[in-house]
Amino acid sequence: MSLSQFVDLVLLALPEDVRPEELQPLAPKAMWRENPYGAMCQALRECPRINWNAYMERNPDVKQAGADPCQHFIRHGLHEGRKLVSWHGLKKPAIPGAPLLSVILVNRDNAHFLRKCIDSILNQSVSDMELIIVDDGSSDESAAIINAYSAADARIKTLINENNRGLLHARKQGVKEATGSYIMFMNSSDYLAPDAFKIAIKTIVKGYDMVKFGAKAFTFLNLPTDTLAEAEAFYNGGAEREYFYSEILSSIFTKRTLSPNLWSAIYLREIVVSAFEELPDDSLGGCGDALELIAIGRHIRSMLKIEQKLVYHNCYPNLDLKTYRHKFLDGLYSTARTIKAIQTYSEKYSLRINQHELCLDLADEIVKKLLSLPSDKTTSSCFWHLVDTLGYRFISRMLLERHQDKWGQILEFARPVPVPYGKISHIGIYHPVLGHGGVEVVIQTLSQLLIRENYKITIFTEEKSENDLEFPPEVKITYITPAYNGEATLARRMEGFEKAIAKSGIDVMLHAATWRPHIGWDLLTLRQHGIPVIIAWHATFAFPLIGHFGLDLHSLEKAFRSADAVTCLSTMDEFYLRRRGINAIYIPNPVKQIPYEPRPEVPPRIAVIGRFGADEKQAGQSLQVLRTIVTYAPWVSMILIGDFYTDEQRLLYRKKIKEYGIEKNVSLTGWTDHPDYFLKQCGVLLSVSYWEAFPMGIAEAQALGLPCVIYDLDIEQAKNNPSIIKVPQGDFRAAAAAVLDLLENEAEWQKLSAIAVENAKKYSPEKFAARMRALFDNFQLSMPVRIYNCADYDALARNLAFYSKRERPAVWEKESACAKSFGSKGAFNAF
Questions:
Q1: Do the bridges between strand 724-727 and strand 666-668 make them parallel or antiparallel, or are there none, so unpaired?
Q2: Which of 261, 302, 256 is nearest to 13 (CA)?
Q3: pLDDT value at position 693?
Q4: What was the pLDDT predicted at 804?
Q5: Phi and psi (nearest 5°) for 613?
Q6: pLDDT 10s digits, 272-283
Q7: CB-based burial, 627-647: b 16+ in 10 Å, e otherwise
C-alpha cells in the first residue's frame, strides 16, 4: 500500500472535525521526510481530537486483548474498515417511561390509504413504540379514521390542524411530541413490511446515527412497468455500505446512491431534534425532504445503508393518468426549489460539502427532464420558470460547465414570447472585435446611418487594438472579457456581459457574432433582461454547413429560432431559415454613397475580395485564380482586399505568391474601412471566397461602375443583373476566364459598368436606413414571408448540396464557354 493510499484510508476514518493539516504539525518535520508512515502514526496517537477510549469501546475485541488502540488501528483496523467514531449503542429513553421508537405520520386527504398505513405500523413485531399522527387540514374523512384508531390504541398521539400548514410544519409538530430514543417518518399513502421496526432498530444499535433502508415502489395508476422500475432503482441506489460525515450528503444528492427522502430511514432522536430546531417554520415549497436531510446530515457522524426493502412507497397517490405529466413537471420544479434551498440555507448550516458541485449535480436532473419534454409553449414556460427560480447566472453556468453540447436544445426552450415591445430608441450592437474586417466595416457604416436616424448606439466588444476602426463620437463602446480562452474565461465574460447589459439601458440588441458558440449564453442573458434580439447573420447559410468554426447547424438553427428576428444578406438564407420557422428578414448591407466617375478606358487592374487563407483548400483555389490570370495577362495587377485569420496564414500566402512567380502582380492591402480608395483604381472585382459573397464590397464596387465576378452564391445584387457574372463554386478556370473577358472587351465592359451603377442605386444608405427604421418601428410584427419560385429553390438546393458534400455537384461539371476556350490551349495541364 502506498503512502497516499494509507493517508486516504486514515482520512476516511477520522472524525468529522479533524482536518488533515492538523496532523502534520504534531510530528517533527524531519520525521515526515524520513519516515512518513511513522510520522502519520505519531500524529494520530497525539491528536487530541481522537478519542482512543471510544475506539476500544466500539471494538470489544481490542479492549479484551489489551492491545494499544492506535497500533491496532494502524496495523489492522484500517484494512478491516474500522472507524474512529464513538459508539452510541442502544439508547436509553430520553424521558422515563418513554418508548424505544417514535413514528411520525403526517396525513392530508389520504383517507383511502390511511387504514392500511396505520395497521402496518401497529402490527409490527416491535411493540415498544409510539405513533404520532399529524393531520394537516384534511377535508376528507381522515380525522374520523384517526380518532377511531386513537381511541382503540393508547400508543397513538393525535394532532389535528384545522388549516393546512405544510409538510415541514407538521413534521416539526411531531418531532416536538416524540419521546423515543429513535425516530422514523411515514407517509400516510405508504405502508411497512412486517419486520421493518425489528430490522431497523437491530441495525442502528450497532453504533450509527442513521440507517437508510430500501423501498418497494407501487402505484394504483396504470403506468408502464419501467416507470416503477426506475422509481425503485432510485430509492434503492447503491450497495450496502457505511457512510461517514460529509460523505453522507454528497452520496444522497450527487452520487444518488442514497435517495433524498426522510421516510426510508431511522434516526437517533437527538439528531432529528437538533436538525429540526434549525429549520424554518414555513413550508419549503416542495423540497422539504431534501432540505431536512441537509439539516440532519450536518449532525450525523456515521450512517449505514442496508439493502432490505422495509417500506412500500406509493409513488403517485393523488394523481390520475391525465395529471401524470404535471407531476413530472412538479418534480422538475421541486428539484429547482431544492437547489434554491441549498443555496439559501447553506451558510446557516455551514455545510461541509462542495455546494457548487452539489447544485450542478442536481441541475443535471433538470436538464435531463427538460430534454425529455416536447418543445412547446409548456416547456418554454417551464424553462423560464426555472430561470426565475434559480436565477440566470446559475442556469447559464450550469449549461456552460455541464451541458455545452446541449446548448442548442436548451435554447429551443428559450424562444421569445410574442409581446408588444415599446418604442426603440437605444440600439446595442455586439461584435467581438472592431478591427479592419468586413463585418466591422458594416458595423461602422451601420452605426453612422443609425445615428443619422436619431438612434442612440452602444457597441459591445471584447478587444481593443490599434487597428480598431473609428466610430462617431456619439457611439458608446463597452469592452467586456474575451470569450475564447477556455471555460473559465467564458464564465467571466458571461458575467461581464450580463453586468454590461444590465447597465446599458438598450432597447434591442443586434448580435453580429453568430459563429461563436457563446451566442447561446448571450441570448439567454438578453432574454433574461427582456431585451429583444436581432441576429445579424452576415454570411451565407453555407457557412455553418461546411462545419467552419465547429458550429453545429442543428444548434445554430435553434439559436436563430430563440431570437426575435434574423437579418440575412441573401434571399437564399432568408428562404432557408423561414422554411424552418425562423423569422428571417432580408436586409442588404449598408453601402456608402460613392460618387461615380465614368472612365474612358478599362483600368488594367483587378480588385480581389475574400478570405484568402482560411484553410488550405481555399488558399489554393484563390492562388490558382490569380496565377491563371497572370499566365494569360502578365500586364494585369491585382489588389487583394481581405485578410487572414492568423499571421501564419498571411506569411504562408505570401510565400506561395512568390513560389507561383506572381509577386510583382499582387499586392495585399488587408481589410480596410475605405475600400473605395482601391476600387477606384480597378476595372473588375473578383470574389474568391467560396462561402461568402461579401455583398457590401460587391455593392460598393457596383456603385463605382465595376462589373463583378463571383462564385455562384445567391445574393440579391446578382439577380437580373448581367454586370455580376456568377461562375461555379470553386471553378478557378471559369473565374479567371470571366475576368479576362471583361478586361479585354472594352465595349462590353462599358455596357456592364453602366448597368452596375444603376443596380447599386437599389442599395443606397437612405434605402438601407429606411429598411432598418421599418424593422425597429414594427419589431413586434412578423415581416411578410416572401414568395419563392421553383428556380430559387433549385438554386438553393444546388448550393446546399455542394456545401454539405464538400464537392462540386454534377450540374456544374460542364465548364463555361470561356473556360473551354482556355482549355483548348492546354494551359491548365500544369494545375
A1: unpaired
A2: 302
A3: 42
A4: 37
A5: -135, 35
A6: 998 898 887 766
A7: bbbbbebeebbbbbbbbbeee
pLDDT at 39: 80
**How far is Cα 758 from Cα 257, in angstroms, rounded to an integer?**
74
Alpha carbon dihedral 55, 59, 63, 67, in 10-degree steps, equals: -70
Are residues 231 and 309 in contact, defined by beta-carbon separation less than 8 angstroms?
no
| Backbone phi and psi for residue 708, each to the nearest 5 degrees, phi listed first | -130, 150
Q: Considering only CA atoms, which of 828, 762, 692, 731 is closest in space to residue 739?
A: 731
Which residue do the cell numbers 377511531 mark?
148
Q: Cα-atom radius of gyration of the chain, to the nearest Å?
A: 37
The CA distances from residue 245 to 217, 304, 351, in Å, are 29, 12, 11
Give, in degrees to the nearest 5, the angle at Cα 191 between 190 and 193.
140
| Residue 787 DSSP label | P
pLDDT of residue 74 exceeding 70, the answer is: yes
Give the helix/strand (H/E) hosting 554: helix 553-562
Is this prediction's pTM over 0.70? no
Indicate the helix (H) or strand (E) that contains 432: none
Locate all alpha helices (DSSP H) within 321-424, ordered by sequence.
324-349, 355-371, 377-390, 392-402, 407-413
Count of CB atoms situated within 10 Å of the CB of 268: 21
Cell numbers linked to 186: 411515514
Measured CA to CA, the distance from residue 724 to residue 53 in angstroms comes to 94
Please say if the pLDDT value at position 648 is more than 70: yes
Average pLDDT, the chain: 77
Q: Beta-carbon neighbour count of residue 350 at 10 Å?
A: 7
